[in-house]
Specification:
single chain, 2 domains, 8 helices, about 45% helix, elongated, binds iron/sulfur cluster
Amino acid sequence: MTTTTITPAPHRLLGDHTWQGEAVCHNTEYNPVDPEIFFPEPDETDKITAAKSLCGQCPVRRACLDAALEGGDTDGIRGGLTEEERGPLHKKLAHRFDYSRVNATIAGRDVHLTTAERRAVVHAAYRHGVTEQRLAWLLKITEEHAQKLYREIRRALRNRDLPQNAETITSPATDGEHLGRDDFGTAA
Ligand code: SF4
């Protein structure tokens, strides 16, 4: 018996459009696609069905949806969702919290992060002893800014631990042991 493993598509890199070459809706001589089906009126159910059918087979569906959300592209069908279906996601984007995006950033990918996700990256980096230089590279910020972010975490941990034991704060590696899932920011 053979087992098929489906690997999730990687997150889109900032400013990366290379995923478009893999799009099922990419109109070519050998793959003619009517772009009009992706811009239906709300009552044009045939077009909506046809477009969603293509999106359902598309290997870059997530990248497509992320690109639309992050680029504020509210027109047409993107990532398998109509304008109406995507509307609430556009409104909630600033509060999006996705651990897989946090982990991808820690692994070195330049993911488009929300504020909550960036905060989680800083906490996770601190917890795992990531240097300030590396954090600066991960978040595309200056080393001074990275140092400031780590200082803020140390201060928060010190304040939190003061009532129990003021002597427990020693190093980033041991400080990290006090961090729990709740420290990773506000989940949307
Ligand atoms: S998800 Fe749909 S709209 Fe997006 S690239 Fe794929 S086929 Fe095109």
